[in-house]
Amino acid sequence: MKEIITYFHTDCLLKNNGINHPERKERLEVVLKTIKKIENIKITIKNAPLADLDTVALVHPKNYMNNIFSLIPNDGLKGVENEPYADTYLCKHSKNAVLRACGAGIAGADSLIKEDEKRIFCLVRPPGHHAETVRANGFCFINNAAVTARYLQKKYHINKIAIIDFDVHHGNGSQEIFYKDNSVAYGSIHQHPLFPGTGSEEETGVGNIYNAPINAGTSGEDFIKIFDNKILDRIEKFKPEIIIISAGFDAHKRDPLSQINLESEHFYTITKKIVEISNIHSQGKIISFLEGGYDLVGLSESFEYHIKGLSE
């Protein structure tokens, strides 16, 4: 079994989105408790550093980031979106949380290459896959997976990276960032229609975007079949040197924000299939980011299965 290096920082617990917001600190707290009870898998937790803006600027221009940070309130909450999706908030602790979430991926990339680690998990919030080049939305400000991919390409000259996204919501940010870049393959399976409304099969980029929209009510077995045929088969043909996972656990049947019927153990099967591809094409190298997952029981159980799959 492979050791899992997990990057986390308590700054990510301080980000506040207000009462009854689904993206809350308890998400990380329940995963931390789950880590403590996992047996037979070595999980080493390391502090996520603050990302520097020069690295973030590989994806997001500095004026975009400075504008976001200029909106941070001294007290209370400040929304950054217009209606009808005004649910992406800044609080006084947002800056460090946002930069730690991104810094986790950068540190993970360094561990992957310099220390020859094989499996990295970034236990962070806010999530990232909805963040577009110059647009925060869907609880996301920096696209953590995208910055990590660009950092791997620039610093370590990695040629081909795949981002596999099994969050129940389409990663509109990841798609937008890499839409015309055939060095990065982006594959997403997601409920459709559902926020953010993107991710049709016709959205193919330069042949590097693989979308698998699925209907509300899809079973776990059908989810995995579609995931195999429309995402993993294409990723395998792409032959990535490193795989990044946008690991959202909100396709779980308990999740309040969607209507897909995955059981917790399905996340083991999904993850193990990704690991098998990484072992063939990527020397087993994977960086996984926590994205969505808003039912705490479903998140805890699904995360445990994800870690079990990652460790193999």
Structural write-up:
With 312 residues, the protein is α/β, with parallel strands linked by helices. It has a single domain, classed as 3-Layer(aba) Sandwich (Arginase, Chain A). The protein has helices spanning 11-14, 26-37, 53-56, 62-70, 94-114, 144-156, 172-178, 220-238, 266-281, 296-310, and strands at 4-8, 43-47, 78-79, 89-90, 119-122, 161-165, 184-191, 209-214, 242-247, 286-290. An 8-stranded parallel β-sheet has the order 2-1-5-10-9-6-7-8, with helices on both faces. A two-stranded antiparallel ribbon has the order 3-4. Strand 9 (242-247), helix 9 and strand 10 form a beta-alpha-beta unit. Helix 2 (26-37) crosses helix 10 (296-310) and helix 8 packs parallel to helix 9. The longest helix is centred in the middle third of the chain and has 21 residues, at 94-114. The protein is globular, with a radius of gyration of 17 Å. The model has no long low-confidence stretch (mean pLDDT 97).
At a glance:
This protein has helices at residues 11-14, 26-37, 53-56, 62-70, 94-114, 144-156, 172-178, 220-238, 266-281, 296-310; strands at residues 4-8, 43-47, 78-79, 89-90, 119-122, 161-165, 184-191, 209-214, 242-247, 286-290.
- CATH topology descriptor: Arginase, Chain A
Q: How many β-strand runs?
A: 10
The topology string of helices and strands comes to EHHEHHEEHEHEHEEHEHEH
What is the gyration radius calculated from CA atoms?
A: 17 Å
CATH superfamily: Histone deacetylase domain
Tally of distinct domains: 1
What percent strand?
15-25%
List unreliable stretches of 5+ residues. Answer: none
CATH class: Alpha Beta
Count up the helices.
Answer: 10
